[in-house]
Amino acid sequence: MKPSRFDYFAPGSVDECVALLAEHGEDAKLLAGGQSLVPLMNLRLAAPEVLIDLNGVGELDYVREDADRLVIGAMTRHREVASDAVGTACPMLAHAAGLIGYPPIRNRGTLGGSLVHADPASELPCVALTVDAELVAVGPGGRRTIPAGDFFLSHFTTALDPSELLVEVRFPRTAEDDRWGFVEFSRKSGDFAIAAVAVDLRLRDGRLERARVGVAGVGERPWRATAAEQTLTADGPAPDVLQRAAEDAGEQAAAAADGYRGHVVATLTRRALDAALTRNGAR
Amino acid sequence: MNDRHDIHMTVNGEPHSVTVPARKLLADCLREDLRLTGTHVGCEQGVCGACTVVMDGRPVRSCLLFAVQAQGAELETIESLGQSAEDLHPVQQAFWDHHGLQCGFCTPGMVLTAKALLEENPRPTEDEIREAIAGNICRCTGYVFIIDAIQAAAERLAAEAPVDG
Fold first, then answer.
1. Contacts with B2 from chain A: Cβ below 8 Å
2. What is the pLDDT of residues A125-170, one digit of tens each?
3. Domain architecture of chain A: domains with CATH
4. Are residues B39 and B96 in the same domain?
5. Which ipTM value was assigned to this complex?
6. Whole-angstrom Cα distance, residue A194 to residue A34?
7. Handedness of CA B134, B136, B140, B141 (dihedral sign)
8. In this complex, do A42 and B44 lie within 8 Å of one another by their Cβ atoms?
9. pTM for the full predicted model
10. Which domain covers residue B126, as residue numbers?
11. Which residue among A110, A135, A145, A276 is buried most deeply as judged by most CB within 10 Å?
């Protein structure tokens, strides 16, 4: 099938985008990398009357390091997010970006597009939620910062107002004591994950000073496995504790979806914890 | 509705100007307006990889881009490679030699994806080849001969390349 008709605008700046959004309101859709929106338009599941193409807004494509954060423009392609430039500061983010789709998809798809699309099975919303990233939006009233924990509301639904666009995402830098793991399960490389688990730990003096566990692919949005997190921070990184935490995450997934996903999430959580604590990584 | 867009792009080294409605996909523009029918349209949802072309040096899905977005771009399609049995690109020749195609529908996307892989990673492992072509669906070959072909092309290209140092 082919997309239905729309009016096309290619603004050159964020200010122009905000003005176009103000003019066209809910009739308009922003086009970032288009790797999710264009399939939906081709299938006519989406039929926006106005398309505002962000690909000419060069000011949204950057990676910058602050003292304790990595600051990434919304139009940065997955290919760049998966690169060593990002990987040295935020290895889990880079690793997860490299699992999205296929190389041609990563050549076009963008960080901001993935977060705003808010597919509950996709990698980057799960990572953003797990590491407590901050999202910066611009609208007619100016800029505001939204914690990732408040951003993802439901299937394909975020806290952004239709008059706003996401411009920047800030990820905490991974410190020396930090351990991370990201594991997903799909039938075929590049497919949407049936489930994915991200873990972000801070190991100090043999204890887990911080334990964050995020789950994707189960339910209407990514979520934090809070019971597992509490088990880990209370009882530390011993193997039996890791197993209990994995089962906690599995129970939360089973309650949110079904027994199969509960089993998958428990297994992935254990693998992600093992990867974090033994290899500091994901494979 | 401002639905006529004049776009200028370079395709296989030649400048082209076309007027398209905004909703026209790049894949359809290449096939219908430029008559470059080597780019195949399979799923139209980014899954099958048949429509893969190279835009500004990187492989992309031409079914997930609107032609208007190619304004000013440099594109390479399968027609940029060998056009006859006598002047095949090493990747094409390897697909021929190793039976890397049967019906040929996936082949333009498969060849361009393989070529891009070998430019970035001249000596890929079998796993790396499988990963690189995971987004290109072939319903004939079972992939085994495609992987043989890409490995053979890697060897051929390495033999042709100037020796380092």
1. 7-8
2. 999 999 999 999 999 999 999 999 999 999 999 999 999 999 999 9
3. 7-53 (3.30.43.10), 62-171 (3.30.465.10), 193-279 (3.30.390.50)
4. no
5. 0.93
6. 22
7. negative
8. yes
9. 0.94
10. 90-160
11. A110
